[in-house]
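Researcher: We're reviewing a set of sequences before deciding which ones to prioritize for further study. For each one, I'd like a predicted 3D structure that I can look through quickly. This is Radical SAM domain protein. If possible, include the structure in token form so it fits the rest of the review sheet.
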Amino acid sequence: MNAKPPQILLVNPWIHDFAAYDFWAKPLGLLILAALLREHGMGISYIDCLDRFHPEAPLQDPSARHGRGPYHKRRIPKPPGFYDIPRHFSRYGIEPPWLDADLEAVPPPDLILVTSLMTYWYPGVRETIGRLRRRFPGVPVLLGGVYATLCRDHAAAHAGADRVAAGDGPESLFRWIEVLTGFRPQWRFDPGDLDAYPYPAFDLQRTIGYIPLLTSRGCPFACAYCASRYLEPRRRTRRPERVVDEIRFWHDRHGVTEFVFYDDALLIHPERHIVPILEGVIATRRPVRFHTPNAVHIREIDGSLADLMLRAGFETLRLGLETTAFDRRSALDRKVDERQFREAAVCLLRAGFDKDRLGAYLLAGLPGQPISDVERAVLTVKASGITPVIAHYTPIPHTDLWPAAVAASRYDIEADPVYTNNAVFPCMPEGFAWEILTRLKNLVQEG
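Model: Here's the predicted structure for Radical SAM domain protein, in token form for your review sheet.
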């Protein structure tokens, strides 16, 4: 058994897609692992293939360091089967020669960890792993993340990694390290205690413009279109004071003012969780702002919570509405009804939120969904004083809606997850149409 702690390289891979944008997107899970490994005495290095601020990249507006912005991109051939889609396909992220130079500069690793996110982004994962293998032949590559968990067999056959860690999480990482390097780490704390973990290793980034926050894991709902319950079967939360301490740390140590909640169920049991968090933030008197790209549950919002969110600094508030066909939504979810939505909208507007800060996600492209349902939903949301935000449906394995998606799709999405790409509306029988996108966009913007 090797007694020497290994050197581990962590890599956030390229994206291959029709479009990609840094919409408060950071590889939080990978940076949690980086901090965990460092805490336990292992050597780490980190490469982000999506680094918008790479030294070789064209200069961006300096203000973009503190929020969203476009990735560098290079046009590449479309996957087979997409030749009829009248859109360009690109590799998003740093150029391959920049990656090669970065790999030359890191210490030779004993193990490489690669993460993954969208299932249909696996071609970018595969290209990244191929590049890593050319630079470090013989070094084992362990693939984890969402794609690895939802499509384990496909990932094992097509991603190019030596092993696939499907949904194992931090708790089993040390077993993989022992298997692949011979080194056996010993836990210094209970891995089931979210409050015991070190803060994610955001210091490994070239710039810390904003901080993603994960105050809880899991979701009590089992929505037909969402894989949260499969990915995180058990709901766990951090202590509110621990979350406040983390916000204070990043603000005081690194000057961060923008914080992004990555929770799937941020507002559940508000009096025990989000209320003490926000009251603690207000008490610190730090000038911070919050964003919720993952959306929050509407049913928990009342006048008191709306006021508290405004005072705490919620700047981008997204609501998980999905549809306004309330009489037929039981097949999708049971997380909000019409009365709860309308009351929440009134509370938020009375608190002082305006439509530029408030958005409600509406799913488009569901199996069997007529486009007229989406259009009616847009009008209903606009009438409530909130901005509609169209979210293109992505078919996801292990969800209740997956069989219907398989039956409705014009692609063989079971055989190849690349065809679940929401940009092509894979479950709409008429297929991708600029006219539909333009019609919805114009409807959202009218008035």
